[in-house]
Amino acid sequence: MIQNNHKLVCFLLAVLTLGGAMLSCGGNEKTDENKNDATQPITDSEATTAPEENISALSKLPGEDYGGYVVNIILNAGDDRFVDIMTEGEETGDVMNDVVYARNRAVEEKYNVKIVGFSDPDQDINAVCRKEVQGGLNDYDFYFSNSHGASLASEGFLYSLGDLPNLDLSNPWWDQAALKGLSVAGNVYMVTGDISPTSLLTSSCLVFNKKLFQAQDMEYPYALAAEGKWTLDRLIEMTKGLTTDVNGDGKYLLGDDIFGFSSWMADSPFSLFFGAGATYASKDENDIPYVNFDVDKISAVYDKMYQLLIEQDSYFVTSGDLYETTYQCFSNGGAYFCEITLQKIDLFLRDMNDDYGILPIPKWDEAQEAYLSCVNAAGGLIYVPNNTQDAARSGMLMEALAAGAYDMVTPSIYEVITKTKNVRDEESAEMVNLIIRNRVFDPIYMNLSSGWNIVQEQLQNKKKEIASALQKQEKGAVKALDKIVNAYLERENS
Q: Would you say residue 6 has pLDDT above 50?
């Protein structure tokens, strides 16, 4: 099974435009200083011309014979990361199983290796990595985790990927936006790309219930989105007054009533925030991230979010125990809109009876250049322990797994996204195009550094303003991010 990114993004753009030329997204492994604009979110929107020859990326890589070496990969069990590597060991008819199986077999045959995936039963890959490195053990070649693994980089447990032989992070199967968000002074220890389809599918989006729209004679927002006019104000205007006390008991309850908007506290505060172009951090000309609490911008975005989620009585789930009810509310016909990720569409809406459509997260205003999709902190990130037995082999196999996914897995991702029975309209396919085109990797959020959840906490506690919280937490946020940056710089200079 598998899921994610860059050519992933690029191939999807070609597929979604119904046969357009395949795009090849490129960039440098080191952050391009000319593109470090401290006022802009770190996204992935670069594209170059299509390759002239239709030759598989994997076949272009040099071959090696590793003598039957067993490649052990450990995956975070908590994020359904199995899909990135693990299969049933044969073709089963399941799309993702079969394409990942084919990718694994191609890499195994080209390099004479055996790929074995392991689930981390304790869901604490950080502890596994620390134990392995500190104990001088080499049980795992690669770790497939999420943003929680970022602390391992600053702690010195990970291999600097820019120094890993045979790994070329400028290749289109590596997500350049993630590299920009995760790098410090051009050094990066965690990456994502086609090697992890789960990362692409963790991109945030909205879904809307067509049946409820039709009942209210509401126009689908497809045209607004296609014209670049799908904004937070439009969403607020469209959902205003939709939450309805159906049974007249004076309460808004799941299962009894209809909500204008449904979302979960661990997703929508970030999706709406980053989607509106707000950020917690920026980069300077030397690729050094720094805290950038733009109080005016963040407060303006927060006010709109508060209006949508709190003042308009949306179904805003603030309890982890009730997490799944966010999507049950929508799938059972209880909400007009729902904030979700591409992965959760398949996970939670597979059996939904009502037809629904997919939309990008709204912009701040029409002047915003592009729709921006937050990549949840659970999105797939891959790293190598700093005591890897054979750096050249690790680099070659990591590159091969990504290139093979670029060839074999990415072309099937679109089918996975839109395979549910209710989302086969052409307009939703075009919306997925918009969703994956620009993904955001904010340095503070991706490192889960101090201050990453300010907006979430304020909304969860129904606080009407955020300026004071930003001011209170700014000093701590600066200190925490500086600590991460200094740890990177110390490793570079050691």
A: no
